[in-house]
Amino acid sequence: MATLGDLERAVMDLLWDSPDAQTANGLRDALAESASADGKELAVTTVLTVLARLEKKNLVSRERDTRPHRYRAVMTREEHTVELMNDALGTVMDREAVLARFIGGISDDEAAALRRLLDGDPADEQPA
Amino acid sequence: MLLTSYLLAGLAIALAWPVPVWLSKAEFVARAPIATLILWQAIALAGGLSMIGAFALWGLAPLGDSLVASLVEFWRVVSGRTSADGLGALHLFALSTAALLGVHLVFTLLLTWIRVHRHRIRHRRLLSLLSNPSPTIPRTVVVQHDTPVAYCVPGVTSAVTVVSRGLMDALDDDGLAAVLAHERAHLEQRHDLLLLAFESWHQALPWLPTSRLARSAVHELIEMLADDAALQQVPRQTLLRAVVTAATGESPVAGAEAALPEGGLSTHRLKRLITAPVPLPRAAVAGLASASALLVLVPTGLVLVQAVLD
Q1: Contact with chain A for residue B126, Cβ under 8 A
Q2: What is the DSSP letter of A75?
Q3: Confidence grade of residue A120 (pLDDT, cut at 50, 70, 90)
Q4: What residues of B are in contact with residue A88 (Cβ under 8 Å)?
Q5: Closest residue on chain A to B266 (Cα)
Q6: How does pLDDT run across B105-120, given as a tens digit for each residue?
Q7: Between A5, A102, A111, which is nearest B151 by CB?
Q8: Which of B66, B195, B274, B302 has the maximum number of C-beta atoms within 10 A of its C-beta?
């Protein structure tokens, strides 16, 4: 059976892909459909637990004026991806301490100079 | 005691400014990255020790001729059995400074660790929603984004390398292997611990030249080490191309004007990527290692000698 983390991911994917807010029942049915090989029936309470966790993490908002409550993603998948990339590309001050990046501190000028070097002499490889 | 405290103060000043300035400009750095990294750690450690030691010994000096005797006397003052008159305001101030400095350094390390840890958790949460494990490469996830980027998120059991779809599209298989070998070296050699230590060293004393210079030097040195590890697995040219691709998002197109980037390269790391550095002679590396050991041993020794001297 899928872990809570996997379910969170699956629920988010459904919410991101649907234009309208979803009920827990609707999400359960959609999940059951996509994981037909998984044999075991998914309980609505499990989906509600997952939704509560996502709401706590501020990923999902709940519309309380209808019964049953409807849920939607707070941000789109693209917005979250931008957030992730900003984190990775260093808009955060202490990024270096969090993540070590492949190209630490290479400037545009340097990249251009390197590019010229590579393009000009592709066979250039002499360990001095 | 007084003499020792002055010696320690001298060492602390040397390690706070002239020594780091010299090392940050030294030519041999690119030729012996591991030895240099150890030297930076020794400079930071010895710098911190001698700073605190100088204040502490100078502060204790009026209380006794040896460290043990003065500490015993200090305890009598603290517990109220002797009056603090013999200490004087200045010496009391020095003792407080030593204590505050020690606490400050430990707490900054702790706070930096917590901050970095929280940030990592947040980043992992985003990753768990937005990335997919690579079907072919172990411990690697792919983010669907056009910006070419590769980085690693460290962790004891959960270390993971992240590459973007844009980078995978821009690189061929060899280039990707080079990137992954580089990232894996960061993770396996636990470079994140070094970054954490020197980040908090800088956070604690941001106005000190040594903390700023050490931090940027360590950043560059770990890239060198990761490059070296990657070069064990891929040819130099492949790694160089991968670096350029990752930096600019485009694969180098052949046929452009050839020009040597003379002076255009500011970093040791890129220079040594283009031309393999001549390793420093064994004797010189041994010299650097001994210097590192001495740096830590001398201030410790000075304090220990004070302890037994009576």
Answers
A1: yes
A2: S
A3: low
A4: 123, 149, 151, 162
A5: A110
A6: 999 999 999 988 888 8
A7: A102
A8: B195
pLDDT at B149: 82
Q: How far is CA A126 from the centre of its chain?
A: 43
Residue whose entry in the numeric block shows the structure tokens 């929280």? B118
Is B264 part of the contact surface with chain A (CB cutoff 8 Å)?
Answer: yes
* Residue B187: predicted pLDDT: 92
ipTM over 0.85: no
Whether this prediction's pTM lies above 0.90 is answered by no
Q: Alpha-carbon distance B61 to B69, whole Å?
A: 10
Q: Give per-residue pLDDT as tens, A40-67.
A: 678 899 999 999 999 999 999 999 888 8
* pLDDT tens digit sequence for B29-84: 999 999 999 999 999 999 999 999 999 999 999 998 888 889 999 999 889 888 87
Task: Choose from A102, A110, A124 for mutation: most chain B CBs within 10 A.
Answer: A102
For residue A10, give the 3-state DSSP assignment: helix
Q: Where are the domains of chain B?
A: 2-251+292-308
Output the average pLDDT for chain B. Answer: 88
Q: Which residue of A has its CA nearest to B274?
A: A125
A9 contacts in chain B (CB < 8 Å) = 128-129
Q: Residue B80: left (phi > 0), alpha (psi -120 to 50), or beta? A: left
Share of chain A above pLDDT 90, in %: 35
Token pair of B266 as six digits = 């500011």
B157, amino acid identity: T
**All domains in chain A, ordered by first residue:** 4-73 (1.10.10.10), 77-120 (no CATH)
Residue B184 clears pLDDT 80, i.e. is over it: yes
Contacts of B199 in chain A (CB under 8 A): 94, 96-97
Amino acid at A65: D
Q: Count Cα neighbours of A79 within 13 Å in the Cβ-side half-sphere.
A: 6
Which residues, 6+ apart, have CB-to-CB distance to A59 below 8 Å?
Answer: A12, A73, A74, A75, B129
Inter-chain CB pairs, A–B, below 8 Å: 171
Tell me how close the Cα of A53 comes to any Cα of chain B, in angstroms. Answer: 12
